[in-house]
Amino acid sequence: MNHPLVIVAEDDGDIRDLLTLALHRAGYRAATTGTGSAAAKLLTSGEPSGLITDVSMPDMSGLDLCRLAGRTPALRNIAILMFSASTLDRDMQAGLDAGADRYLPKPLRPGQVIAELDEILATPRNHLGIRTPVNVSSAQQGPFKLAHSDLR
After folding, report:
1. C-alpha of 39 from chain center
2. For 86, which of 1, 102, 115, 148 is 20 to 30 Å away at the CA?
3. How far apart are alpha carbons 120 and 150 in whole angstroms?
């Protein structure tokens, strides 16, 4: 069985290990790195199903990784989960505008990360490359589960 590959880009080794363990338990393969440039190489050298990235990383931000995925035809359909310690509306909007499907606040809950990833991967993109929104009220989503349409 071919398990989906997810790239984890996070400079904190403990968080990276926690996400890797959660991904493996959920049936995903994980390729991990602590820098943005190494994540970019991983993204473009394989066929990942997803990217889980911190906004702030050495040498290349998570925002730049999202933009790279959007410019690369083979990566346009991957699920992108972005996270950060910042919960400012402008920072969340910047992540979503860069191409993230979801923006989650730190500290991360591994179960939530896996649930979000599963949901994103199960939601098809339309002919314009936009994921069809899932009909979930913002009250059900919780205070920080943000999708692109939530901030517009």
Report:
1. 12
2. 115
3. 15
